[in-house]
What does this fold into?
Amino acid sequence: MSNNQNFNFQLPNHFDFEKCLQYFSRSEKELCNVVDNSCLFKLYRFEDELYLVKTFKSKTQDQLCNEVLNHKINERARSYLLHNIQTIFDLGTDLDHFYKSISSTDPAFSIIQKHKGLRLIKEYNLFEALTWAIIGQQINLEFAYTVKGNFISNWGKSLTWKGKSYWIYPEAQIIQDIKDEDFKLMKFSKQKARYIREVAEYCLAHPSAKNDLQRLSFEEAQKELMTIKGVGSWTANYVLMRCLSFNNALPAKDVALQQAFKQIYGLASKPTAEALRQMTKHWNGWESYWTFYLWHYLSKG
DNA sequence: ATCCAGGTTCGGG
DNA sequence: CCCGAACATGGA
It folds into this structure.
């Protein structure tokens, strides 16, 4: 079927769609990114309309194909979806520089090689990136996915297409309607519920926050994020990396990253945040990609 | 039972 | 400025 519901775009070097899809299947509880038969099904919001898009790799060309399944689109919607999807898969980064910066004598060399073509998968929406980071603070990942699933299935929106449900992450506006006791029921601590409210207020008060932050220097953007209660250095760096497309973010307090270091470099114990900063000086500009790859290594080997 | 999870804030020394 | 406690739940 050839119609204007579809749009394709060219892929850069060092792009492996299957490896990118692996990232989305890191948890059974994933609701917003449905992977089926090598295709990604995802719901997008543009001007209060929901668009269900199927994204897959062309069999004949080095292109990513996108089909809007549920909705007629105009040129502006198409343009938004294109930008969103290109951002999610981080198509603008030239990974050649990353791969060439890694010494073959580095014990992590083979790990990076193994996952070559994996892109740093982005969260397009700032509110989603911030709240997901807060949900993930100080609890094990499986529990974090449970809480995230609660959050989405209670306060997000869904669309049913051909008998299957697809979910989109809650918006900041909904937070003020949520009662404290409902947060509690969904396994949010009082502290986290409060942080989520702080983030929602920040996003509503600064509708262009994502663009504004991306225009700042790394240090300025980090400082600005940390003015939000509940956003410390780990969360700020997580968001700089997963949403704001800074490739030099380093969540040094991250216990998973510390754990990966201990394993790969055979350390007696996990390095402290400061030790980790010292040992990653040669990551110089690629801290975000290193971190993403080492997280991927922990979940996929 | 005890410790640790993809941390942050707050109060005290 | 650095340190411990509280936060809340679940898996090993």
Summary: Residues 138-140, 142-143, 146-147, 187-192 of chain A lie near DNA strand C (CB under 10 Å from a C1'). Chain A has a mean pLDDT of 96. Residues 190-205 of chain A form the longest helix (16 residues).
